[in-house]
């Protein structure tokens, strides 16, 4: 289990939000933490700690008046730590190279590939060609409905018809280098991980998988290790001391 740090950017600021509260209406979200530092500060911190594979997430839509400020912060982070960070949020074949050239090790994609509630294999192939399989992370962020986890898109607001299953992950894994999975219903709440989802993900061994959502204590980390079969990497946001929480960054750096 490796710790994968994050830099979530909303309205041009590094923030931690409650995932399910994000809406495009006036760019609103329930905020847990708003940093006084810019994205470069966190990128430099992760660089000095020698942590690779963290992710920068743009939380504004591309038609938002705040999008450009958010994008500039993201590019600042990438240029501060070239090769050390991944980037997601509105990534498509048209901008993937820009982010990779700015220093991203990988681009993270959801909405472009899961169009109109389904997997677009054509768009997935376009994305693979634009970024290269070795630079592509598929975000399978999901919410539970009818006792099953379904992939959600458009800043976690829209359900697709695509369930998170081992079969789906095997097929998608042929096109990408890693998976990132936000458990959206617990994202930003720091009240425990989705053990059922972790157990499901533990059955997939084809590509690295990073779990995000609900971690509020070191016990939650151990629960994730147990239910995830020690196969999942972990992201910690609101509960991290860097973002106003109680889990020491220095402790997570030592995760193995």
From TrEMBL:
GO terms for biological process: L-histidine biosynthetic process; L-tryptophan biosynthetic process. It comes from the Bacteria. Keywords: Amino-acid biosynthesis, Histidine biosynthesis, Isomerase. Pathway: Amino-acid biosynthesis. GO terms for cellular component: cytoplasm. One of its GO terms (molecular function) is 1-(5-phosphoribosyl)-5-[(5-phosphoribosylamino)methylideneamino]imidazole-4-carboxamide isomerase activity. Coiled coil: none annotated. InterPro entries: Aldolase_TIM (IPR013785), His6/HISN3 (IPR011858), His_biosynth (IPR006062), Isoase_HisA-like (IPR044524), RibuloseP-bd_barrel (IPR011060). Belongs to the HisA/HisF family. This is Phosphoribosylformimino-5-aminoimidazole carboxamide ribotide isomerase. It comes from Blautia luti DSM 14534 = JCM 17040. The gene is hisA.
